[in-house]
Amino acid sequence: MRYRTLGGLRVSAVGLGTMPLSIEGRPDEARALATVHAALDAGVTLLDTADSYHLPGGEAGHNERLVARALATYGGDTADVLVTTKGGRGRPADGTWTVNGSPRHLKAAAEASLKRLGLEAIGLYQLHKPDPAVPFEDSVGALRDLLDAGTIRLAGISNTTADQIRRAHAILGDRLVSVQNQYSPAVRDSDPELLLCAGLGLAFLPWSPLGGISRSSLDGPSGGGTTDGSRERFGAFHAVARERGVSPQRVALAWLSSLAPTVIPIPGATRPETALDSARAADLVLSPEDLARLGR
Q: pTM for the whole thing?
């Protein structure tokens, strides 16, 4: 396992996004716990969760409780594992994703997350998404208050623009350590935010980092038979994977890691085998020729 820096902490170069273990299509608890344990066995020390990762309705915190059980039942040392969770979103019974960035809500949500995780303080707490009904500075101010109170140790923001990153950094200074935006072979429109994070020394945590690869995998290595451009857009990932004798998903994660030294992908998994394959991407070093074929 290779490592990178997040807020002065040494964490695995590839994390584990635990969301798929609690939402629609989730595995049974035994397999879910085994999936987290497999990632830990492979050296993963960054687990990403959120209070809203659950089935629609009244299951708030399901994923956080699952992560807590996975750590409690793991037979190895978990002292260096950083759990990052998020607040500011909800999942009511109709299956929609709501947003609530009010300081009152964020503070109550962080306290509830802390209890579910069973920690002395949340290692990294992130605003899940800016709330258009709440001034952004007010939401970030709640993170500052949580830091001052010792409820959380580090703060981050998610689904944000470059301007919002600068505004959050102006409020939190070096206590802002991460940005979690969508970025993948299929979705590359957060380049400004990724580059800004690299310049500020903020960890950039791409969510859904395998977008595009899973779809093209279903269609075969060449993306044959598709009409959406998968063959042209993602075929290089499969070609490099064949040449290296690894999965195209592992190539995609290694490609993401090459974009900046502050990038730490957080792929999801629902099976131990998938978690292990993703973790092994940390040790895959792509050549300049490979990277030229895969594109920026």
A: 0.93
